[in-house]
C-alpha cells in the first residue's frame, strides 16, 4: 500500500489490473498478493525480480495488493515460485498467455480484503498476555533474566512475532534493508543485552499495530467497492413467452427487457420503454433529490426506484455498466503516483539508509572514541533502528489520495488520478462551454420570421430536413418545432450533406443547395444585408440564438431558439468566484446571446463565435495569464481545448463512454456546483497530506532526539512509530466524508 522506490517509467498512467500486451511485446501477468501492503514487501519483490532474467517491468498497486509483471518468460510459474520463496503467496488474477494455473486456485477468492483468522487472534491474545506478564514479573521482582521472565517473553515472541522474525530472516538472505529486518535486529539485540521483557513487548506491539493498520487500510482500500454492492445480483427479465423470470444480472443480455418495481434497485443500465417513476440516482450522480423518469429516459445500475413500476431495455452488460466503469476507473488510478506521493517515495529511499548509518555510528563511535560503555549505546542504536522505518510517512499519501478519490466518486465526481485531485486546488481560471454546461442544452424555437416570399410551411420543412441530419441542440429544437406543427408532410431527402464546423450545415434538396446556420455562416455566404443584420441583432440582444435558412442567393427564414439556464449555474459561478477562480465563458454562439447568458449567471469575461481552434487559443491565453486552467465541456466536443487545459472536466458524464474515457474529471450529473466541491476537496486533500507528513516527520524527529539522549525505550519507539502510522491512516480516512 505505501510504496517507495518506484520505477515510474512503468507505473505512470497504466492501469494495474488490465491484462494487455505491452509495447515491447512482453506478456503481462497480474497477481494478487495478500501479504503485500507496505514498502517492505515491494522492495523485497523489486530487489528479487531485478536480478531475474526475463522480467521487463513491474507495477505495484499496494492499495489493491496487486503486482503487474511484464515479462518474456515462457511461463508465469517461475514468477509465482520466486514470490513463494519470499513467503508471499500469490494468486494469478490474469495473464496474457492464458496459462493453466495448477496449484494456484487454493489461495482463496481473488479479493484484496484483509481478514484475520481466529487462530491469529488467539495467538496475538497469548502474545499480549505473556508479554505484559513478563514485564510485570520483571518489574515486581527487579530481575529481568529470571527463568519465569524469559519463559513468558519467549512465548510472547514465538506466538506474536514469529512471522516478523521469519520475514526478517528472508530479508537478511536477500540483503534487503526493510522494517522486518530492522525489527528482528532490534528484538535480538534486546535479548542479547538481557532486555527480555522489552523484546517481548516490542514484538507484540509491532505485530498488533500491523494488524490494526491492515484492517484500517482496508477501509480506504474498499471504500469504492461498497458501490458495487448497490447493484442487485438478480434481475426480473421478460422471456420469449412474455413471462417475467428472475435471472442473474451477470447473465442478462443486451436488449433484454427488465422490470423494476417500487423500492427495488435497478440491476443494469438501460432505457425505459414503458412506465414512469422517480429514481434516486445518488450512487451514480450524487444528486440528493430523486429524478423523474419516463419512456425514453436512461436509468443506471445501482440506482433506486422510488415510485411506480417500469420496464426498460438493457443497453450495457453488468461488467460494462456506468457503475462498474466508475469503480474500475477509481481502482485503476489507485496504482498511480500523485505528486506528493512521488516526493515522499523518493524521500523514503534515502531516509532509511541515513538513519541506519546513524544507528551504527551511535553504537560504535562513543565506545571507541570516548571509552563509553557499549551496552547503553547499543540500546540507543536499537531504538534508532526502530525509528528508521518510514511507514507512517510513506503510508500517509496513498491512503489520503484514495480516500479523496473514493469520497468524490460517491458524490458523482469521478477523478481520473491523484495528480488531478492535487492539482485542483491550484486552478486559477475555469473556461466553461455554454450549451449543455451553463445552460440545459435543450433549446426550443421561440420565434420564426419569414424573410423571403413563399410558403412558410415549405421553408420550415426545408429547415427541419437539414436539421434532422445534425445532432446540434439547436437543430433538435428546429426538428421538434416542425413536428409540433403536426403537418402531414414528410421531410425532404437530403443529399451532399455537410456539417460546417462552428457554422451550421449544408445540403442539397431537389437539386438545390440550402444552408441552415448561424450569423457567421450567412456573413461568409455574403447574403447578410443591413436589414437582416438588424433583425438578427434584435434576437441576439435578448439572449436568443438565431439560425437562418438560406440558399446561395438569399436568406429565406429566421428561427430563433432560446436555451434555459440551469438552476445551479448562477450559484455555482458565484461559489467559484468566491474561491478566487476566474470564470470565462467560451461558446460558438453569437456574442450578443453569449453576453446575455453571461450577465444572467454573473460571468463578465464572455467570448462568443468560438470555433474549436478559437477555444484552444483562448485556453493557451488563459494558461499564460493564470497558470493553472480548467476547461469544462461535454467530453466529446471541444476536444483540443479540453486536452490543452491542465484539467479537462466533462459535464453529465453518466452513461457516456467518451466522457468517462477522455475527461480528467467527470461530473456524473449536470450540476456545475460540483466544480467548487472538487476544488474544495482538493484543498482539503492537500491540507490532510501536509498534516500527515508533518505528523510523521515530527514524531520521528522527537523520538530521534529522545533516542540520542537515552530517554526513549524500544517499546516506546515501536509504539510511537506504529501509532504515527495509525494516526495518519485515520486522518486520511476523514476525507471519505469530505464532500
Work out the number of β strands.
Answer: 26
Beta-strand content: 15-25%
Largest sheet descriptor: 7 strands, mixed
Q: Write down the overall mean pLDDT.
A: 81
Q: Which residues form runs of ≥5 with pLDDT under 50?
A: 1-24, 99-112
CATH superfamily of the domain at 444-562: Calcium-transporting ATPase, cytoplasmic domain N
Helix percent reads: 40-55%
Architecture per CATH nomenclature, i.e. the level-2 architecture of the domain at 444-562: 3-Layer(aba) Sandwich
Tell me the number of helical segments per DSSP (H or I, 4 or more residues long): 27
Topology:
Elements (H helix, E strand, L loop, with lengths): L7 H4 L15 E7 L5 H12 L4 E7 L4 E6 L5 H9 L4 E6 L22 H24 L5 H14 L1 H12 L5 H14 L3 H26 L3 H4 L5 E5 L5 E5 L8 E4 L9 E6 L1 E4 L1 H4 L5 E3 L4 E2 L4 E2 L4 E5 L7 H12 L5 H32 L3 H14 L3 H20 L2 E3 L2 H6 L5 E5 H5 L5 E7 L5 H12 L5 H12 L10 E6 L3 E6 L2 E6 L1 H7 L4 H12 L3 E7 L3 E8 L6 H10 L3 E5 L4 H11 L3 E3 L4 H15 L2 E5 L5 H6 L2 E4 L6 H6 L2 E3 L5 H36 L5 H20 L6
Helix pairs in contact: 4-5, 4-8, 5-8, 6-7, 7-8, 7-13, 8-27, 12-13, 12-14, 13-26, 13-27, 14-26, 14-27, 17-18, 20-22, 21-26, 26-27
Amino acid at each position: 500500500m505505501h510504496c517507495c522506490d518506484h520505477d515510474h517509467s512503468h507505473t505512470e498512467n497504466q492501469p494495474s489490473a488490465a491484462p494487455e500486451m505491452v509495447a515491447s511485446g512482453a506478456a503481462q501477468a497480474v497477481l494478487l498478493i495478500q501479504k503485500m501492503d507496505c514498502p517492505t514487501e515491494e522492495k523485497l519483490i523489486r530487489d528479487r525480480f531485478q536480478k531475474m532474467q526475463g522480467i521487463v517491468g513491474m507495477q505495484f498497486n499496494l492499495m489493491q495488493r496487486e503486482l503487474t509483471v511484464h515479462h518474456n518468460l515462457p511461463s508465469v510459474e517461475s514468477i509465482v515460485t520466486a514470490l513463494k520463496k519470499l513467503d508471499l503467496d500469490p494468486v494469478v488474477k490474469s495473464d496474457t498467455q492464458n496459462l493453466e494455473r495448477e496449484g494456484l486456485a487454493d489461495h482463496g477468492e481473488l479479493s484484496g480484503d484483509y481478514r484475520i483468522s481466529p487462530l491469529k487472534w488467539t495467538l496475538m491474545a497469548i502474545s499480549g498476555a505473556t508479554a505484559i506478564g513478563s514485564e510485570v514479573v520483571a518489574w515486581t521482582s527487579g530481575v529481568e533474566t529470571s527463568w519465569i521472565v524469559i519463559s513468558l517473553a519467549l512465548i510472547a515472541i514465538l506466538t506474536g512475532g514469529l512471522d516478523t522474525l521469519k520475514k526478517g530472516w528472508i530479508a537478511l538472505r536477500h540483503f534487503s534493508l526493510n522494517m522486518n529486518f530492522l525489527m528482528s535486529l532490534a528484538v535480538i539485540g534486546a535479548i542479547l543485552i538481557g532486555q527480555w521483557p522489552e523484546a517481548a513487548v516490542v514484538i507484540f506491539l509491532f505485530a498488533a499495530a500491523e494488524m490494526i493498520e491492515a484492517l484500517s487500510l482496508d477501509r480506504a482500500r474498499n471504500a469504492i467497492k461498497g458501490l458495487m454492492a448497490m447493484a442487485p445480483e438478480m434481475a426480473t427479465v421478460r422471456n420469449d413467452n412474455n413471462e417475467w423470470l428472475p435471472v442473474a444480472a451477470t447473465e442478462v443480455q443486451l436488449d433484454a427487457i427488465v422490470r423494476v418495481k417500487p423500492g427495488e434497485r435497478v440491476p443494469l443500465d438501460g432505457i425505459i420503454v414503458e412506465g414512469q417513476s422517480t429514481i434516486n440516482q445518488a450512487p451514480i450522480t450524487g444528486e440528493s433529490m430523486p429524478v423523474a423518469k419516463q419512456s425514453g429516459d436512461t436509468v443506471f445500475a445501482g440506482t433506486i426506484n422510488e415510485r411506480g413500476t417500469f420496464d426498460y431495455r438493457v443497453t450495457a452488460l453488468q461488467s460494462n455498466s456506468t457503475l462498474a466503469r466508475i469503480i474500475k476507473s477509481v481502482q485503476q488510478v489507485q496504482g498511480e503516483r500523485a505528486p506528493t506521493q512521488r516526493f515522499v517515495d523518493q524521500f523514503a529511499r534515502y531516509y532509511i539508509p541515513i538513519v541506519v548509518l546513524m544507528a551504527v555510528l551511535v553504537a560504535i563511535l562513543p565506545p571507541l572514541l570516548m571509552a563509553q560503555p557499549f551496552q547503553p549505546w547499543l540500546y540507543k542504536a536499537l531504538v534508532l533502528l526502530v525509528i528508521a522505518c518510514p511507514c507512517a510517512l510513506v503510508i500517509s499519501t496513498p491512503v489520503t489520495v484514495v480516500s479523496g478519490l473514493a469520497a468524490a466518486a460517491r458524490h458523482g465526481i469521478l477523478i481520473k488520478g491523484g495528480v488531478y485531485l492535487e492539482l485542483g486546488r491550484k486552478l486559477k481560471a475555469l473556461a466553461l462551454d455554454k450549451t449543455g454546461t451553463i445552460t440545459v442544452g435543450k433549446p426550443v424555437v421561440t420565434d420564426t420570421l419569414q424573410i423571403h416570399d413563399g410558403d412558410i410551411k415549405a421553408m420550415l420543412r426545408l429547415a427541419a430536413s437539414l436539421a434532422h441530419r445534425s445532432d446540434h441542440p439547436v437543430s433538435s429544437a428546429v426538428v421538434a418545432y416542425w413536428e409540433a406543427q403536426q403537418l402531414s408532410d414528410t421531410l425532404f431527402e437530403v443529399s451532399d450533406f455537410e456539417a460546417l464546423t462552428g457554422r451550421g450545415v449544408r445540403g442539397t434538396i431537389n437539386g438545390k443547395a440550402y444552408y441552415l446556420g448561424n450569423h457567421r455562416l450567412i456573413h461568409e455566404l455574403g447574403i447578410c444585408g443591413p436589414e437582416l443584420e438588424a433583425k438578427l441583432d434584435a434576437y441576439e440582444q435578448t439572449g436568443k440564438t438565431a439560425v437562418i435558412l438560406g440558399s446561395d442567393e438569399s436568406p429565406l427564414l429566421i428561427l430563433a431558439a432560446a436555451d434555459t439556464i440551469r438552476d445551479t449555474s448562477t450559484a455555482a459561478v458565484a461559489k467559484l468566484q468566491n474561491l478566487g477562480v476566474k470564470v470565462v465563458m467560451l461558446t460558438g454562439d453569437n456574442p450578443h446571446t453569449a453576453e446575455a447568458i453571461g450577465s444572467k449567471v454573473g460571468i463578465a469575461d464572455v467570448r462568443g463565435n468560438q470555433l474549436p481552434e478559437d477555444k484552444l487559443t483562448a485556453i493557451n491565453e488563459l494558461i499564460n495569464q493564470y497558470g493553472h486552467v480548467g476547461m469544462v465541456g461535454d467530453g466529446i466536443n471541444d476536444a483540443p481545448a479540453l486536452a490543452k487545459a491542465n484539467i479537462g472536466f466533462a459535464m453529465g458524464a453518466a452513461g457516456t463512454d467518451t466522457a468517462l474515457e477522455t475527461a480528467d474529471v467527470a461530473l456524473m450529473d449536470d450540476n456545475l456546483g460540483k466544480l467548487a466541491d472538487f476544488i474544495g476537496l482538493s484543498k482539503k486533500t492537500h491540507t490532510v497530506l501536509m498534516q500527515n507528513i508533518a505528523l510523521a516527520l515530527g514524531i520521528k524527529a522527537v523520538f530521534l532526539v529522545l533516542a540520542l539522549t537515552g530517554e526513549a525505550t524500544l517499546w516506546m519507539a515501536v509504539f510511537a512509530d506504529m501509532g504515527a502510522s495509525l494516526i495518519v491512516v485515520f486522518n486520511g480516512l476523514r476525507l471519505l466524508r469530505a464532500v
